[in-house]
Amino acid sequence: MNYYTLPSLVLILAQLWLCTPGMQRKSIKSADQSFTAFRRVKRGWIWEPLFVTEEQITKMPLYVGQLKSDLDKQDGSLQYILTGEGAGSIFIIDEYNGKIYVIQKLDREKKSFYTLRAQVINRNTHLPVEPDSEFIIKVRDINDHEPQFLDGPYVATIPEMSPEGTSVTQVTATDGDDPSYGNSARLLYSLIQGQPYFSVEPKTGVIRMASQMDRETKDQYLVIIQVKDMVGQAGAFSATATVTINLSDINDNAPKFQQRLYYMSVSEEAPVGTTIGRVMAEDSDIGENAAMNYFIEGDSTDVFDIITDNETQEGLILLKKRVDYEAKRRYSVQAKAVNRYIDERFLEEGPFEDTTIVKINVQDADEPPVFTLENYVMEIAEGALSGSLVGVVTAKDPDNDDSPVRYSIVNGMILKRLFSINEHNGTIITTKPLDREIAAWHNITVTATETRNPEKISEVNVYIQVLNVNDHEPEFPKYYETFVCENTFSGQVNAVTLDSCPNPPANSEHQCSG
Ligand SMILES: *[C@@H]1O[C@H](CO)[C@@H](O)[C@H](O)[C@H]1NC(C)=O
Ligand SMILES: *[C@@H]1O[C@H](CO)[C@@H](O)[C@H](O)[C@H]1NC(C)=O
Fold this sequence. Notes:
By secondary structure, the chain is mainly β. The chain is built from three helices and 36 strands. The chain folds into four domains: 45-140, Sandwich (Immunoglobulin-like); 148-248, Sandwich (Immunoglobulin-like); 256-363, Immunoglobulin-like; 366-514, Cadherins (Immunoglobulin-like, Sandwich).
């Protein structure tokens, strides 16, 4: 047989719906113009797609298509032979007319096409009428799979105040059906819960912000996304997924003091470093966006300080310098709270700080008397007569009521016996002549006690030096004491000799003993 002169074997590939008896003899081309037929002129085969729809259940073999030769006189002289995948088990052929039938249920998701070979031979000569040819039967999809969200439930985080349209996350469903045929695997996403805050792109599953949201109002949203196959049309399968969307904080809130004015007080007795009070600014942000530092401003920054308590976010106002009720009773400072980390994007929304006024009253304290000197150094000539003036100490009550004070010497009996103090005016006098050779110094402690509040007592040291009167005459004090006129006044350190005795000063309280 001549390859070129023989009419072609025509393989008619029919869709399954052509199996219905009334349509079997219809031309495939006229039945469906969308078939992508092409002609292989050399071989004379006409190939067109051949389909079996999956999941067909029937007791009878279902017609698929027909192998046909022009040389077939329908006298039974030609034999059609089918080989290849599923030949004889899944697909059978009527060897007299070339009709192919499927005898099993097929599952596209397991095997989507079968490769077979067609042959036609002369029954008598067993010689091929046409060369062998390979062809494919495709399994056509039906919508037998539901879409599935494989990665759900989803969690996503997006900064608060993100502009409308910002992409939050994407959910993706899969569908086992054939994406290249029909709508079975064409998915459509929609939002079941989450309006009006979020939207979902129907085709991509991308979730977007649908409005600007403030974390300080609500920080978590539960969004439910539904996916349907069949582009959502009737007969579609669907699935849902939940998406938890958390809003993360940005620094969009400034600190704000709880009070515009704070009142505090501090005792004038309080030592440096005393905590006078606390101020607190609140910030509705969280974490480092809420962290703040406190500062102090105003005229009295030399007197008061502020430190930031990182645990409590409070500002602690401390005493930096002691205050004095009698000098200044009222102070006013400004406390300022400033966010530690500022998001540059929000700079134009104003300064991320706040100030408040702190008024501090100084409380009067009943303070003990204060001596005019920290300590006193006095001198007395050795041998000076009992009653000689050594010196005067003075203490005053610093308080406004200015209580009178009483003086006293508190040292042990011996020193007490050597000196006495006038309890009203602090005048210290000797009670007996002093001997420098016994002690060159007499260090005593004097107290001043407020008469109106005897608990308020101050002490001061008084260092009394006994001065040497005459180095040349070591015996002199004896004689002086024994024989010399007691004309010595406190503070007088000039040498006194026997010769000076005859003319004692007129105001002397003492009498010559000689
Ligand atoms: C202190 O009082 C005594 C006794 O009244 C008096 O002798 C003395 O001069 C007074 N001293 C002073 C410094 O006023
Ligand atoms: C008293 O004080 C003076 C001066 O501070 C000192 O030199 C002296 O040693 C002291 N004497 C006594 C007994 O404390």
